[in-house]
Amino acid sequence: MWSASQTNAEMIHRLGSEGVIVSSAVARAMRSVDRRNYCIEGDLSPYDDAPSHIGFGATISAPHMHARCLEAFVQHATRGDARILDVGSGSGYLSVVFGRMNTDASVFGLDLIPELVEQSIANVKRADKDLLESGKLRLLVGDGWTGLPHEGPFDVIHVGAAAASVPRSLLAQLKIGGRAILPVGPEGQVQQLIMIDRVSGGPPEDAKAFITTPLLAVQYVPLVASEK
Ligand code: SAH
Fold it and tell me: Ligand 1 atom closest to Cα of 223?
């Protein structure tokens, strides 16, 4: 799976020839965001198809993981007034790509670590600061177990850290017709990336309101449990 690229364009091209990127919307959006700006300074291989440490115990996910999630979200994320929540936004990369995929969307990146949110804002300011200035992208400090109840409901909820169980409050913030993708499973072990579609109203406990589809085995950093 791992592959090396020298440029952002080459990285996108490879993901295309590997069949990971299939839609022009995803290709165009990822091409317009330079992944180097979201890696730490001194990262010698920002275009390799591998995760990379960004400090504070976090990693920017591998490009193929971002691409797979974006492909699964393409219909939902490109709706006219899509509201998009990216939990565990880390580097800010994926939030920005969502913003590029749909200039009319409202994108919220949420991360627990204030220093990381600060760093992600600095990353965005390198070449994508128009998204912050227009207010279309907001990068906020907050807890993924709570989400952003006042900004929902969302068409898209992406979670970039693994929870032992699906956070109920996030399900409650999913629009009817909305889609969530999140890794679920024990810390440090193989987890399952799952896709959840909300097909009707009703409480998060109502199994009939949600359709869950397992996507693939993954290993993500844990979605840290909030302190009560
Ligand atoms: N999608 C990001 C992934 C970053 S790693 C990227 O590609 O850059 C996962 C992130 O989840 C870390 O930044 C970590 O701080 C964050 N995180 C962990 N627990 C969290 C929680 N309870 N609420 C919000 N963010 C959390």
Answer: 19
pLDDT tens track for 73-125 = 999 999 999 999 999 999 999 999 999 999 999 999 999 999 999 999 999 99
The single residue listed with the structure tokens 């920005």 is 96
Asked if the structure places residue 103 within a domain, the reply is yes
The answer to the question of residue 7 being in a domain is: no
Q: What is the value of pTM for the model shown? A: 0.97
Residues belonging to the active site: 61
Q: What are the structure tokens assigned to 21, written together?
A: 């990127």
Beta carbon of 39 within 6 Å of any ligand 1 atom: no
Q: How many structural domains compose the chain? A: 1
**pLDDT, tens digit, 9 for 90 and up, residues 134-154:** 999 999 999 999 999 999 999
Distance from Cα 96 to the centre of ligand 1, integer Å: 15
Q: Measured from the CB, is residue 138 less than 6 Å from ligand 1?
A: no
Q: Domain of residue 156: give its range.
A: 67-218
CA-closest residue to ligand 1 atom 17: 88
DSSP tag of 52:
E
Give the torsion sign (CA, 36, 190, 58, 162).
positive
55 within a domain of the structure (yes/no): no
